[in-house]
Amino acid sequence: MNLEISLEDLLKNGSHFGHNKKRWNPKMEKYIYGEKNGTHILDLRKSLPLIENALKFALDCSKNQKKFLFVSTKKQLGEIVEDIAKETDNYYVNFRWLGGMITNWNTVKNSINTLNNYENILRSEETVFTKKELSDIEKKKIRLDKTLGGIAEMKATPDVIFIIDTNREHIAVLEAKKLGIPIIGIVDTNCDPDLIDYPIPANDDGVKSVQFILDNFKKVLINTSDDSSVKEESNANE
Questions:
Q1: The model's pTM
Q2: pLDDT tens by residue, 107-139
Q3: Which of 32, 98, 115, 226 has the fewest CB atoms within 10 Å around its CB?
């Protein structure tokens, strides 16, 4: 599988735009090309091999049927994160990261069970609840679904966590580090790349930048999943 991404594609999608130079993290200095009009510009020649390295890692994980959790609570990126998770049969958090979401997994599982119970009640054709009670349950379900809907089918903590904007999602980073879960992260000029196992220096705010990067990971994960299905079917027929 060809995992190469071109410099031109990254430039075209605005992956080189960083933050205002006043908001930078000095640990990102080696990935910064310079600045223009007070905004740092990332050196995509250094980003490129790191993206390819992260793609190879994702490919290996997918071949071994590892499960990914995609995280971004930025409103403009919510749909992109949900899309890649659903299309690759993985999980996502795109509304709010609850403290302890993976380090306190047993408690979170109880909340997921509550969400599932609410859904079962609302789907049932026979109910002992009044209209007002059902309305209250519906409201509670909607609130829980925003936070937990993307991990409702997750049976255990993820094998890999993919974080967009590791500065904003610092609690998710710390929890993954505590559990020893490998992190792939899009790190902008205000992030700490040393905390990330597979850092991707790139614009983590721009929709086009994030979409382009995730589309490449989606191709890797979908193709690997398809290959696994073919192998399983072939083995079953032997």
A1: 0.90
A2: 999 999 999 999 889 988 778 888 899 999 999
A3: 226
The partner residues of 68 in beta bridges, in order of sequence, read 160
